[in-house]
Design brief:
The chain is mainly alpha-helical and about 140 residues long. The chain has five helices and no strands.
Length: about 140
């Protein structure tokens, strides 16, 4: 009986040794840089570095685009203000037809005074609060 147990113990030890050798070979294949997980980790590490560089470049490009867009927006707003001022100043000019049909009249001080007195005679309900030069020169109020 003791001999049978020694044979079984030896066979168990031999089986454990074979199992350890198989596991050692698998672990070597698993950790090699070319084929195993080590290679996969190395490839993923390189890809992460590439993605980080790409992300940094995209951030820089977005920052530059943002600055350029801000500058262009401020220039457009300044141009819009200038155009509004020009349009407002054009409202005070007489129409082209009125200038062509009107006889050149010199506006003397006496004539200006007469117009102002005429304007003062208009009742307050009919007189506009703000009058343009064009309306005053035509004698039209309102």
């Amino acid at each position: 009986m003791q001999m049978a147990s020694d044979i079984l113990l030896g066979a168990g030890a031999l089986g454990a040794a074979i199992y350890c050798m198989v596991l050692a070979r698998r672990l070597k294949r698993f950790s090699t840089l070319e084929n195993g997980v080590g290679g996969a980790v190395a490839v993923l590490s390189v890809q992460v570095d590439d993605m980080t560089r790409t992300l940094d470049a995209a951030r820089k490009a977005a920052g530059e685009s943002s600055r350029t867009l801000t500058d262009l927006t401020s220039r457009a707003e300044a141009a819009a203000r200038k155009l509004e001022l020009m349009m407002a100043s054009l409202h005070d000019l007489p129409d082209a037809g009125e200038v062509a049909n009107a006889a050149p009249e010199a506006m003397t001080e006496a004539r200006q005074d007469a117009r102002w007195q005429e304007t003062a005679k208009v009742p307050q309900a009919e007189a506009p609060m703000f009058a343009t030069r064009r309306a005053a020169s035509r004698g039209v109020l309102g």
